[in-house]
Amino acid sequence: MVHVWELGSGTQTQANRRANAAKAPSSDRHYIRSTNISSTSFFTGWKMARSLFVVAAFLLLFVGFSFMRSFADEPVSTVPAANETIVIADAGDTLWSIASDVKRDGMDTRQAVHRIMERNGLSESQIDIGARLIIPAGVGADEGS
């Protein structure tokens, strides 16, 4: 069962309604058409906003990673100066044993270990076999300073 409700004074017949609809001013049709266009532009606006958000998020991440890379600690130079020497760690060598072997007479071994770690950018005293350690000037026995 279908119910149809029609509101009105009842004086207008079906034929009169069709005639009035045909005579409707073009501004009404323009209004209807512009409503459809605005709903289309509404969805286009959301697509544009989503696209801009994705691009902005990508740029933000790219800039963030670029700053992380550029402000990271620079590695300590591995090229020794003219008055520095290089020691290659062998099996069983420790930083303490290398420092005690290469330090000058009268120098504390703890101070030699600290300066070697500082020069080579080491955060812990453990070294690997074959590691190249630069002995800074002032630590080695042959510098004398």
UniProtKB/TrEMBL annotation:
UniProt-listed Pfam families: LysM
Cytoplasm as UniProt keyword: no
InterPro entries: LysM (IPR018392), LysM_dom_sf (IPR036779)
Keyword RNA-binding included in the entry's annotation: no
Keywords: Membrane, Transmembrane, Transmembrane helix
Region annotation Disordered: where it falls in the sequence: 1-25
TM spans (from-to): 48-68
Stretches assigned to the LysM domain: 92-136
Matching CDD domains: LysM (cd00118)
Name the record gives this protein: LysM peptidoglycan-binding domain-containing protein
Source species taxonomy: Bacteria, Bacillati, Bacillota, Bacilli, Bacillales
